[in-house]
Amino acid sequence: MTTADAEPTRPRPEFPLRPEFAPDLFAGAGEDYARYRDGYPDAMLDEIVGVAGATGDGVLLDLACGTGQVAIPMARRFRTVWAVDQEPDMIKVGAAEAARAGVEIRWTCSSAERLSITDGDLELITVANAFHRLDRRAVARSARGWLRPGGALVIMGSGRIPGEPLPDWESVVRTAIRDWHQSNPPATPTSDQSPPDQRKVSHEDLLVEEGYRVSHRSFVVARERTLDEVIGHVYSRSNSTRRALGPNAADFEADLRQRLLARHPDGRYPEDLGYFYSVAHPITGAA
């Protein structure tokens, strides 16, 4: 039986098989997302290309692409890059970012689940910090057909390290968001609304179930944010976009700044940021 590569020191988070997120979760957040969301180290992207065995001569499809955190740097590594996201604001801002970077990308507004692609057209498919928001089984099955022989599906992300305590300032941020929502409930849900009893499974285990051979790697990068960078990153999160915070978002920001400076008066906010990627190759003959 084929299994995902083991990393016993890093527990892998599990997610519902069919999450239910609002399709306009990040409406209006494109500029904040482009400016403050963490990109991916060049060495990591080069390593992914190598592990995937990609030549760069084929087509890379970046699903749920956001504002191009993967598509834009990968456009320097692939002949053709196709970036797809279901939110128009993300596509608009991403296209502007790509133009500023001087790279050509095909941008399409669509959900990953409804995308129509000719089988065998793609060399590499990437999904960054978004696979948990998709119908993962449906996407994994579609990807098997879309990929040309030797192609791969890559799931990647960055964020908190599973099992590790939060930085003290991140706890402050989460408390501030929770307090704000209690007194100013968002007009629409900002989190997964799927049934609580739905089966949960890690990305790697699901891909193995769907007939992929999976290699996985995770690592940690120490970094430091400024106060403005912390605030900007908060605005890029689905539960604290300016839209989700409502018309008095400026009051939230003032309160959060005060709380953060009380914890770190120097305005510097260190953290250990986790990165991961899983490269999944379809197994020939698997159902």
Secondary-structure element string: EHHEHEHEEHEHEHEHHHE
Instruction: Please count the helical segments.
Output: 10
Which CATH architecture of the domain at 15-163 and 197-223 and 271-282 would you pick?
3-Layer(aba) Sandwich
Instruction: Provide the low-confidence segments as ranges.
Output: 1-9
Give Rg in angstroms. Answer: 19 Å
Counting DSSP E segments of at least 2 residues, the number of strands comes to: 9
What is the average per-residue confidence, as pLDDT, rounded to a whole number? 94
CATH superfamily heading of the domain at 15-163 and 197-223 and 271-282: Vaccinia Virus protein VP39
Provide the spatial order of strands within the biggest beta sheet. Answer: 4-3-2-5-6-9-8
Helix content: 25-40%
Could you name the CATH topology of the domain at 15-163 and 197-223 and 271-282? Answer: Rossmann fold
- CATH C-level class of the domain at 15-163 and 197-223 and 271-282 is Alpha Beta
Beta strand %: 15-25%
The class by helix and strand makeup works out as alpha/beta
How far apart are the first and last residues' alpha carbons, in Å? 14 Å
How many strands, what sense, and barrel or not for the largest sheet?
7 strands, mixed
Form type: globular
Description of the structure:
The strands form two sheets. Strands 4-3-2-5-6-9-8 form a seven-stranded mixed β-sheet, sandwiched between helices. Strands 1-7 form a two-stranded antiparallel sheet. It has 287 residues and is an alpha/beta fold. It contains ten helices and nine strands. Helix 1 crosses helix 8 (227-235). Helices cover 34% and strands 24% of the residues. It has a domain at 15-163 and 197-223 and 271-282: 3-Layer(aba) Sandwich (Rossmann fold). The protein has helices at residues 30-36, 42-52, 71-74, 88-101, 136-146, 168-183, 203-209, 227-235, 242-245, 249-263; strands spanning 15-16, 59-63, 80-85, 106-109, 122-128, 147-159, 200-201, 212-226, 268-282. It starts with 14 loop residues before the first strand and ends in a 5-residue tail after the last strand.
